[in-house]
Known about the structure:
Elements: H1 5-15, H2 17-29, E1 36-44, E2 55-59, H3 70-82, E3 87-90, H4 103-109, E4 119-121, H5 132-137, E5 142-143, E6 147-153, E7 156-163, H6 170-174, E8 183-188, H7 194-199, E9 204-207, E10 216-217, E11 221-222, E12 233-237, E13 240-244, E14 262-270
Parallel strand pairs: 1-14, 2-3, 3-4, 4-5, 7-8, 8-9, 9-13
Antiparallel strand pairs: 2-14, 6-7, 10-11, 12-13
Amino acid sequence: xxxxxxxxxKALVASGVGGVAGTGTYGYLYGRHELxxxxxxxxxxxxxxxxxxxxxxxITDVHRSRWVSHEDVATAVxxxxxxxxxxxxxxxxxxxxxxxxxxxAATDAMGTLAAPYGVFAILGNHDNDRxxxxxxxRHGFEVLRDARTRVTVRxxxxxxxxxxxxxxxxxxxxxxxxxxxxxTILLAHDPRRLTEAAALSIPLVLSGHTHGGQVVLPLIxxxxxxxxxxxxxxxxxxxTTMFVSRGIGTIYVPVRVNCPPEVAVxxxxxxxxxx
Length: 275
């Protein structure tokens, strides 16, 4: 059964106004700052042997703003660099509502990111498509806007395809694919692109956008993210695997409850069927 607004209100009332206020206060003062490093083994169908063990760092949904400080972002960057990923993906939404006052600050805070196979960025729905790419590029990050690039990993070609938030049609994504790559990874801010990726048999999709729901209530879950096929972590559809990161920042309200911010370190491994 779908969760209705009335059901949510009843749950909040049942838990007690004081409890709700206390939870919100904790989520504001502490929950949104309790960054974790998520280390996940990500199974990929028909993964070439050379890519087994490849470690990909993922930072997304920074949302640099008055509520997400330089220190918040710099801490996330430092924690990821401590993990020494071989390739880094930036998943978009570097600021909130395209606020130009924070674009430079957001990208400068990420400026120390580096990896042997490079740092690759896409844009989210909050990013200005004109202003943001130059700020990312000046730090050596390759920005993929409905574009693909090829990286040679352990002598095998790996294609990264990055799409804009508004690129949604299967045909538009298919046009960015090419033959000859041992594997393709789709970088899509919105995890709803799992549908198109599965239709195209793309092995792996990396996304953000959901914030993991940001507020996850007991027994109810992540109300704000129910429309997404994967809210956080690993999901599968047909022969496609998806990983969705909870991201770093917040949107609408500067609170996280039962949903800590994260940087992710993904280790690719062959998919083994349970059958």
